[in-house]
Amino acid sequence: MNRKVLVIALALMLVTSMMWANGSGEQSESKEDNVIVVGLAWNEKMQSLVQAWEDYMKMYSKEYGEENGVTFKWVVNVSDSDPIQQASNIDDLIALNVDVIVARPHDAAAIGASIRAAHNAGIKFVTFDRSSDGVKPDAHVGADSFNQAVSTAEYFAELLTENGVDGKVIELMGDLRDINAVQRSDGWHSVEDKTDAWETIIQVPTEWNPEKFRSGTANALEAYPEANAMFIASDFAFSAVQSALEAADRYYPVGHPKHVWIATQDVNPQGFDAMKEGYIDVATTYDAYFHAVELVEVVGRLYKGEDLGGEAFLVAGRVATPENVDKLDYMWTKEYAE
Amino acid sequence: MSVPTLRFNEVSKAFPGVKALSNVSFDVCSGEALALIGANGAGKSTLMNILGGNIQPDSGGVLIEGRNVAISSPQDSINNGIGFVHQEIALMLTMTIAENLFINSYQTTSIGLLARNLMEEQCKTVLESLNCHLSPRTQVKHLGSGDQQMVEIARALLMNPRILILDEPTSSLTGKEKSRLFDAVAVLKSKGVAIIYITHFLDEVFPVCDRAVVLRNGEYVGGDTIENLTYTDIVTLMIGESDTDVYYSRDQHSVSESLNLRVKNLSRSGVLKEIQMDLHKGEILGLWGLLGSGRTEFIRSLVGLDPNDTYDVEIREEKRMVPLYKRKASKYFGYITENRREDGMLLPSSILDNMSLANLRSYLSAGPFMNDEKIKVESKKYIKKLDIKISNVDQPAGTLSGGNQQKVIVGKWLQRAPMILLMDEPTRGLDVGAKRDMHQIINDFVQSGSSVLLVTSDIDELMNMSDRIAVIDRGSITGMYPQGVSKEDLMAAASGFAKGDKE
Amino acid sequence: MDRIVFRRVSKSVNWKKLLITNSSVIALAIIFCWIALVTPGFFTTRNIINVLNQSAALGFMVIGITAVFITGGIDLSIPSVMALSGILAAMAMQNGAGIMMAVLISILVGLFLGLINGYAIGFLRMIPFVVTLSIQIIGMGICVWLTSKVSIPISNGTYLNAFSGKIGIIPVSVIYLAFMTFVATVLAKKSIWGRWLYATGININTATVSGIPTRKVLLGAYAWSGLFAGMASLLITSRLASASSTMGQEGVVLNIVSSAVVGGVSFQGGFGTPMGAVLGTLIITLISNSMNMMQISYYMTLIVKGIVIITFVCLDSIRHRN
Q: Taking 80 as the threshold, does the pLDDT of residue C254 lie above it?
C-alpha cells in the first residue's frame, strides 16, 4: 500500500517538474511567419472520399502557397464517428494553438460547443461538407446541392427534348432528414416547373439505404410501367438500381428502345462505369477536388485576416455525360477507384 | 504359468509428508481380471498414475511381459499397450460415437480429408466385439450412461491394449447396464487382455474378477484368488488395525431430544434419492460413504450450492420447526470443505477478509461502513485460539499451507457460530496434532447446542467423533447406526452388502 | 517453519509483484516521460487540464464498469444507456424542465436500465454479455426513434455551467470525477458492499455459503454501472451542448473496457479499484491526446491503441496466473 502511494507521489513529482521545465512557453506551436497551421478534424476516415479531400487539400495548398507566399502545415485527426471524441480532438487542436480549424462535423448540434471553444481561444473555424446547426463558424465550405441538381436537370431537359421523349420520371430521393437530399430534390423540381420535357410521376424516399433504392425502383416500375426516366439522388447505390432494372428487363444503354433515361448526381465509382457505357445519361459531379480548392482559398483568406462572417462557399460541380465523363480532370472517383 | 503381462516390482512413491506407496509388488496375467481394492488414500490412484505415465516412482518399476519399461509420459503408456477407462465419462456429447473414438487419432485419406468410412467401419468392429450394436453415427448425447461407458471402453480398445484399467466403471450404471459391462469384461478376458478392475463395490468383485489385491496406506496387505476370499476377509484387509491414540477421545455428552434440522426429502435426479435424516441439538452425526456415494453432493445440496429437484427441509427457529427455503440456507449452515479452492476460500484475499466473510454484518460500525479494528481484534482471537500459523493478518490466504487454510475457514465459522456446521473432510491433509485440535474444536462447538454433520473418509475419526452414523450409498441413506457400531459393518454397508440394516 | 518460508518467498517476488500490481501507474509515468521528450508543447497547463477534462466523462463510465468487472461480468450497454439518459434529459429541458429535473431524469434512467441488466443477470441467471448487448441495441433503437437522428440542442445556461463550466482554470467535470472517485474508493474499501462485491467476484460459491446475498450484489453492480452512465451523460451533453443518438454508438465501449483493463481491473473478476480504473482512463485519454499532439497518423493511432490494450490484457492474465 505504502509503495503504491510512493509511486504515485513520484509520478506526480515527475509531472510537475516537467511542467515547470516545459511550461515556460504556453505557446505550443512556435509561430513562424507565413506558415498557416491548419487543424483538420475529420469525423471519420473509412470512406475513400475523405482521403481524397485530404489529399486534394494538401495538393492544392502547395499550389496556392507558392502563389501567395505562404506555407500550409496540416495537423489531421479522426474521431471514429464519435461526437465526443471529435470534441476532444478539436480541444487538442486548440491546445496546439493552430491558426485555423477545419472540421467535418459528425453532429451538427454538438459541433457548436467546439466552435465556441475555438473562438474563445481566438482560433478561426471552418465547417466542411456538413454545416453547423446552432453556432456559426467563420465560414462553411461544401457542395451546392441545389445547383448541382439544377444543372443536371437543365441538361436532362435538353436531352429529352432532342430525342423527342416525353419523360415519365421515377424520382429516388435521399434521406429527407438530410438537407442535401432535400435540396437536390428541390433543384430538380425547380427545373421541372419551368419545362415540359418531363413529369415526375412518383417520389420514393430511400433514407440513403441501398436496399430501398432497389425495392423502390422495382415497385415503382411495377406500379408505373409507362415510366421511361429516372432521377436518382445519388449514384453511390447505382448497383442496387441496376439490379432492379435488370430484373424488370429495362437495363439497356442509350440507343436501345428499352433504354430508361437516367439523371443522377455525384459520379461515384459505383456509377462511373455505367455512365461510360451509356446507361446513365447525365450527372453533376460531386467534386472533391473543387471542394478542397475552395476550402484552401477560404482558409487563406481567413489567415490574412479577412472576416467572412460565416458565409457559405458552395461548389456546384460539373455536368458529366457518357461523352465527357472519361475526359474530366480531377475526378476523385477515377483516381480513388479500387 | 508363463511371464505375467504386467508386474509391479517394489514400487515406492513419496509425496511431501505422505508415503503414498511403499514397496508394492504384484502381477496381472493375460486373460485375467484383477480387482484392485483399497479405501480412499490407500494408494490406488498413485499406482494407476504411475502406470499412466503421469508420475514417476521413486524406486522400483514396471515390467511388461518380463521387460523393464520406463513410462515417462501418457504416450509411453499407450505405446506399451496400456489402456484406461476413467471413472468420469469424458465424451464429447454432440459428436458421434466414431468421432469420439478417434478424437485424438483422426484417420485421413491420401489427400488429407477425414476417412469417415474407414473410421466408422473400425468403430463398428470394436463395438461389435463388445457385443454392442450401435451405429457409429449416433450422437453420444443420445446414449444412456451404460452405452456411453461402452464407448469409453471401445475408445480404450482401439489401441489394442494388452492391459486395460477400469477405474470404478459401474459408478454411473444401473443394474442391467452393469451386467452388460460384466459381459464385456468376460469378452475381453477371453481375448487375452489383462484387466485391472478398481472398485469400491465389493459385491462386483466376486462375479467379475479372478483375483483380488488389497492396498492399505500405500502398502500391499494381501491378495489371493477370489475363490479363497470372502468379503469379510477383504474388509478386514482394507481396514486393518489402527492406532487409536492419535485421535482425540471425545467426552461423553448428552444429545438433546429436540431437533435442529430435519431433512424430509432431498432429491436430485441421478445423484440423490429422497434423502431423509434428523439432526439433534448438540449432536455430531457422522455421514459415512465411499467416494462417489453422493455424500459431498448431499452436503452441497443442503447448503444450496447444487441444484435440487426437491428441497424439503425444516429448521429449528426458536422452539418450533419451520420450513427452510434454500435461499436462506446460508443463514443457518456453516460449510467447511476440503475443496477449499472451489467453495471454501477467497484465496487471493487476506486472512482477515476470509475470517470475517461470514460475519460481515456484525462488524458494521456506522451505516454501511466496516469496523476494521473490530475485525482485526476478533479474528486475532481465533487465530490464537486455533493456533493458525501466519506471518501477518493481511497476507493472502492462498499463501498458507492447507492445514492453516482449513483453520482459517473454521475460524470464519466459529466467529459466526451457525446452528449447524456441515463438515466435508475437515481433517484431510492435516497432521496429527492439527487433527486433534480440530476434533477438540468440533466437540466444543456442539457443547453449545449446535449440531455438526461430519463427512470423513477416516473411519476411526468417524467412529470416535460421531454420536450416530448414517451410511450413504449411491445417493440414498442405506443405514443409521448408533455409536459403537463395528468398522466391518460400516465398511460392508458402504460397499453395498448390507441394505438398510445390520446383518 | 511456515512462517520463515513464507517470508523468504514474499521477499524474492517483491519486485516482479510491484511491477505487475502497479503496472498502470508505472505505465502512466513512462508514457508521460516519453511524450515529454518527443513533444515539446505537451506539458502546458492548458493541455494537462484539457486531458483531465476529456477524461472526466469516460472516467465516470469506467468507475461504473469497474463494479461489474469485479463481479466477473461485463456491461456493453453503457453507451446507449448514457445516450438515452442524455436525450431524455435534453428533451425535458427543451420542454421547459429545470436543471434539477434534468439531473434527476439522467440519473434515474441510468439507474433503471442498470437495474434491468442486474435483475436479468443476478436473478434470472442470464449471461451478462448477451443481456447488456441486447440492452445496448434496444437503447440505441429508442434513441434513434426519439430523435430521428437529429440532435437536440441544450441551451439551459445553468445546466451547461453546472457540468461543463470552470472554477478558476479547473473544469468542474474534473472536480466531479475526483469526488466520485473518492466516494467509490471509500465504498470499495470501507463498506460492507465493497466486501460483498469483491467476495462475489473472487468466488461466488464461497460468498454464497458465507451468507452474502450474491444475487443482490450482482443487481447492485449493474445498477451502479447504469447510474454512472447516467451521470456521465450530464458531463457529455453539457460539453457538447446537445444530445444525440450518435453519442451512444458501440465504439465507446472499447474505450471504457480498455480504460478499465489498463487500470488493472481484471476481466476475470475479483480485482481492481476505482482509483486504478480512473488512472487507466487517464492513460487511454493520454494516448489519443498525445498522438494528436505528436501529429501521428490516424491509422497509426489505431495500431498503437490496440497494442497498448493487448499489453495490459496480457499483464492481467499474468497477474491472474500468479
A: yes
